[in-house]
TrEMBL record:
Domain of life (superkingdom): Bacteria
Classification lineage: Bacteria, Pseudomonadati, Bacteroidota, Cytophagia, Cytophagales
Signal sequence, start to end: none
Boundaries of every FAS1 domain copy: 37-167
Pfam families: Fasciclin
Gene3D superfamilies reported in the protein's UniProt record: FAS1 domain
InterPro entries: Adhesion/Biosynth-related, FAS1_dom_sf, FAS1_domain
SUPFAM superfamilies the record matches: FAS1 domain
Name of the protein this chain belongs to: Fasciclin domain-containing protein
Amino acid sequence: MKKNRFVGPYVAFFLLAVLSSGVIISCKEKNEDIVKRKTITEVIMENERFSILKDIMIHAEMTDALRTGEITFFAPDNSAFGKANIFASSVITGLPADSARKLINNHIIGKKRLEYKDLLVAKEKSLTGKELSLTKTDSIFAVNKADIILPDISAANGVIHIIDSLAVR
């Protein structure tokens, strides 16, 4: 019986082609595999540095409001609240939700993503219409005399700059 010399190479080529295409197809990235950036709400909710702000946001029913829209948030951390003698969120959560909402909105510039490099000495309006005066001393920017101590925490819907005291009460 004669051996067919051409069948072996064709079978080997066919198997190699099938295996290669399987590897190529399996390497495609799916949308659900891509890690999505966190929203401003998620950054604040997951960081212990903002535990007081987190409780105030929950009380003010603002957790959904800070998930969308491009904003710049001058966020006071727990130390900033401490400078205002607010050592527990209960001081503010005892107030009406509208008052807590106003406190948070006083620290937000809406419809703008102002990274630190883009800040200018200027006056901006907060979401409540309060004036936020941006000043610069040496290389440090301040918002109504509250120094930006940690700039440019990027989020999917804006940027957070941590400030060392409340900018507007």
